[in-house]
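To: structure desk
From: M.T.
Subject: fold request, one chain
Message: Could you run this one when you get a chance? Sequence is below, nothing fancy, just the single chain.
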Amino acid sequence: MGNGVTDVRTQGGAALQTELDRETGARLLLSRTAFPGTIAAAYGAHFLLQTWSVPLSVTPYIAALLAAAVVTAMEFVIPYDRSWHPQWIDVKNDLLFMVTVQVLVPVGLSWFFSVTLIQYVPTLGLSVTRLWPRNLPLLVQFILMLVTIAFFRYWLHVAAHNTKTLWSLHAVHHSPKKLYWLNVGRFHPVEKSLQYLLDAFPFIVLGVSLDVIALYFIFFAVVGFYEHSNTNTRYGIFNYIVSSPELHRWHHSRLIKESNHNYGNTLIVWDLVFGSWRLPRDRRVGELGLINRNYPLGFFKQMTTPFVPGLDKKPPGTANAS
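Reply: Done. Structure tokens follow.
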């Protein structure tokens, strides 16, 4: 399944040297410290704002905005591919996805479940909120939440590449022909709803505290921004812990043998466990996106593209794609 490409050659050949490879000094140091530095800055801002009595419901969003600003700067200072810099039409569409799918959909679902299921459960005499080990240290709860969500999201992502119905939705996320941080939010709202049911929602039901959810949100945001970014960052050992841009750009390759790897959205450890981790070190990634190079990219058109059978592989009215 997946994007179905089997005969498109990766551009450039072996042992290609990136622009950053040829540089030394501050830019090389920046490539290796950008991710951990941004994580540290985001969490630092989060905790500092709390000391200033900023509400816990607000501080994670400020920390995420700070991270977004840093990643945007990194895309200009240490870009992976200058041809990937977005045009205004790209930014406009991805902003619509970010606001609608990544903000409004989760908020709407949270409200719906909070006034229905979560209030209905106690009437059945159930106390699921007691299942979460709230007595454990905050850091341990955060790691437990992170590893558990990563496990379920890993298998949802695998299913999205290997079943027709889910792939038709997930093709929206794979449709861009270039990566930059803002297209991290490009998901069809139906797929986003499925993701919500496997990550935030179960932990809200289990009674995970806002402190833990805030830590998860910041980590999720910073990793997501960077993994889709057009930055020539070097993760080193972190490539075996989190989903990095070095790993994730291969997941967006047109070649199915490359894109059906690195399914982790935050942690990459489950790819290591289940054998889907991939990081070619002798060449650059080739073309990104789908077989159908005319797959619509506009926000409103992509609300309906999953319901056109085979559109990711061929324009309507054409013969079967090879």
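Reply (cont.): Confidence is low (pLDDT under 50) at residues 5-18. Let me know if you need anything else for the meeting.
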